[in-house]
């Protein structure tokens, strides 16, 4: 089905963006001559752009529709990727690299929220749990991007060439697949949009979903930003081994997401979320105290399995009512992004004081909170809306 394949291509492209940056972060750090804390502050530029963008994403999606928001956000992201590579490895400017990271964060955040709205519409239309699979293709993108990063790091391809090439691939994927996206059919006008968004911020369940995501998003974001460096510096491995570790983490996430629909159908959202928190907690603790590269790699499998399903499940839960989906997804994403984007840079500052591995233990507190709030994901179906949407979706 063209719609399905187009949405999958968008999620795949988003994964490529994330892993391209992460896999070459040691090279960027070395090229700019930065410490852990300075890398954290540099990443905070991306966090600032993302947090600002995701805070406004609900209104943007409600105003422009998810299709146009995805295309605009992805285009800005791809252009920013190319600038990051150029400014960090050719110009050698920390300030300009920070500006480019801000732009990438701004584009990626709106793109991701709109993708979840589009994906949730498809899930309702098909009448089954497919959000984990869509996020699984995001993870496929991160695996592919990490593998490319390992290769290009090994052959010492300049970061600028790497980032320009991947930016071009992202543009091809998003504009090719975007032709089949379904336009949003429910609009309430500017005043009504603001009312929906304001109401979503006052809903206890929506806020609790956001706080639950916050804990697990910190665990996912910290792995994305710091695993490669933690293996390189904390375990004394080469940069390429750090990229391999990140690849193992995202591979575990990919497997969990591709199989997640079946697991959710059997056990339900709440039980799966609690089990996920337990796995993530075990993975983080084992990674910090494993004392060998082999144990660290095994820990990354548990860590990746644990964090894999939280975000897609929360997006599904926030989208149970179609007309409120964009507003609720925006609220949950905004709260979650506070940890996903702001937490990892702050961990860099903590790492300067206690060491990078020990700093990762701070993740455990919020993972425990996510376990306690898993009940917020309990399904609240809207059968009449789902049945209507389902009739409009062609059979695969």
Automatic annotation (TrEMBL):
GO cellular component terms, A-Z: plasma membrane
Residue span, Major facilitator superfamily (MFS) profile domain: 1-380
The protein, known as: Fucose permease
Gene Ontology MF terms in the entry: transmembrane transporter activity
InterPro entries tied to this protein: MFS, MFS_dom, MFS_trans_sf, MFS_Transporter
TM annotation in the entry: 40-62, 69-88, 94-114, 134-154, 160-178, 207-229, 241-259, 271-289, 295-317, 329-350, 356-376
Keyword check for Chaperone: no
Lineage top rank: taxon: Bacteria
Pfam family, one: MFS_1
Chief place of localization: membrane
Lipid bilayer topology: Multi-pass membrane protein
Lineage: Bacteria, Bacillati, Actinomycetota, Actinomycetes, Micrococcales
Location(s), subcellular: Cell membrane
């Amino acid at each position: 089905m063209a719609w399905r394949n187009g949405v999958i291509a968008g999620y795949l492209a988003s994964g490529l963006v994330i892993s391209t940056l992460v896999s070459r972060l040691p090279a960027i750090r070395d090229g700019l001559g930065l410490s852990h804390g300075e890398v954290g502050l540099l990443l905070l530029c991306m966090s600032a752009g993302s947090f600002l963008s995701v805070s406004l994403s609900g209104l943007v999606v409600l105003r422009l529709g998810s299709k146009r928001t995805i295309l605009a956000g992805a285009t800005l992201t791809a252009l920013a990727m190319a600038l990051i590579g150029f400014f960090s490895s050719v110009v050698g400017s920390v300030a300009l690299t920070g500006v480019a990271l801000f732009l990438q964060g701004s584009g990626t955040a709106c793109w991701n929220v709109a993708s979840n709205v589009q994906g949730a519409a498809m899930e309702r239309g098909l009448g089954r749990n497919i959000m984990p699979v869509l996020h699984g293709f995001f993870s496929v993108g991160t695996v592919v991007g990490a593998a490319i990063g390992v290769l290009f790091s090994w052959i010492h391809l300049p970061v600028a060439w790497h980032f320009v090439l991947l930016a071009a691939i992202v543009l091809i994927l998003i504009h090719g697949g975007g032709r089949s996206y379904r336009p949003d059919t429910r609009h309430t006008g500017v005043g009504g949009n603001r009312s929906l968004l304001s109401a979503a911020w006052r809903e206890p369940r929506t806020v609790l979903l956001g706080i639950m995501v916050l804990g697990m998003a910190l665990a996912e974001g910290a792995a994305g930003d710091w695993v490669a460096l933690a293996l390189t510096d904390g375990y004394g491995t080469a940069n390429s081994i750090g990229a391999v570790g990140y690849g193992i983490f995202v591979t575990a996430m990919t497997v969990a997401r591709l199989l997640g629909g079946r697991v959710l159908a059997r056990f339900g959202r709440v039980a799966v979320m609690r089990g996920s928190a337990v796995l993530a907690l075990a993975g983080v603790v084992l990674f910090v105290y494993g004392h060998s590269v082999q144990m660290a790699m095994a820990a990354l499998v548990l860590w990746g399995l644990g964090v894999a399903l939280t975000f897609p499940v929360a997006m599904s839960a926030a989208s149970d009512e179609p007309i409120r989906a964009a507003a609720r997804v925006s609220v949950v994403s905004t709260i979650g992004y506070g940890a996903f984007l702001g937490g990892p840079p702050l961990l860099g500052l903590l790492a300067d004081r206690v060491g990078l591995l020990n700093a990762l233990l701070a993740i455990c507190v919020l993972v425990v909170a996510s376990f306690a709030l898993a009940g917020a994901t309990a399904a609240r179906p809207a059968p009449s809306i789902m049945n209507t949407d389902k009739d409009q979706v062609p059979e695969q």
